[in-house]
Amino acid sequence: MDHFTDIASTQSVLTAARAIRDAMPDIPLLFTFRSAKEGGEQTIPTQHYLALNRAAIDSGLVDMIDLELFTGDADVKATVDYAHAHNVYVVMSNHDFHQTPPAEEIVLRLRKMQALGADIAKIAVMPQSQHDVLTLLTATLEMRQRYADGPVITMSMAKEGIISRLAGEVFGSAATFGAVTQASAPGQIAVNDLRSVLMILHNA
């Protein structure tokens, strides 16, 4: 929703959500406002961000919300609890567009998401080298084998990280993101090409 120009109007946001739901009644709908600090298009006050997510939950139009980890622990936990009380799942996320943290830090963030009640923990990081891509994949594997109690989604962005989008399942990432027309993050692959490679690896 961060591409939506009338984001200040909760009613306009919900009207747009209704239009999307009506157009795709059988497709799970993930409500996402990506903040500018994590790669999104706009900056809004934290309280409006939280209110938008609560309004989406209340609307009954969405199946999941995306909640950024570093919004504040108390607010995040309260929103998770509110979502679950309304049978809405939570994808908790963190996006680092500047670097790839050490594997230990990546695992720590994913574990914190779980501790705060995330149904799906997601992290995307920016590689500065091929070794950074290996760091992300190593952290993903460690998370899956030692700590995960639910699905985890991880990816290394940009051209260097494309392999993590293609082969993430091998290391424990539960999903990836493809581009229909225009990529929303560096390194996203056209959805038809992505599907072909994923099916080859999944069925191998």
Describe the overall structure:
This protein has helices at residues 10-23, 46-59, 73-85, 103-115, 130-147, 162-171, 191-203, and strands spanning 30-31, 64-68, 89-96, 120-125, 152-156, 178-179, 189-190. It has one domain: Aldolase class I (TIM Barrel, Alpha-Beta Barrel), CATH 3.20.20. It is an alpha/beta fold. Strand 1 (30-31), helix 2 and strand 2 (64-68) form a beta-alpha-beta unit. Helix 1 packs across helix 2 (46-59) and helix 4 crosses helix 5. The strands form 2 sheets. The protein has a 5-stranded parallel beta sheet. The chain has a two-stranded parallel ribbon with strand order 6-7. The chain has 7 helices and 7 strands; from the N terminus they run H-E-H-E-H-E-H-E-H-E-H-E-E-H. It is globular. Homodimer. Keywords: Amino-acid biosynthesis, Aromatic amino acid biosynthesis, Lyase, Schiff base.
Major sheet size, sense and barrel closure:
5 strands, parallel
What is the N-to-C order of secondary-structure elements (H for helix, E for strand)?
Answer: HEHEHEHEHEHEEH
Task: Find the structural class using helix and strand composition.
Answer: alpha/beta
**Shape call:** globular
- Please report the total strand number as a whole number: 7
CATH architecture annotation: Alpha-Beta Barrel
* Strand portion: 5-15%
Rounded radius of gyration (Å) = 17 Å
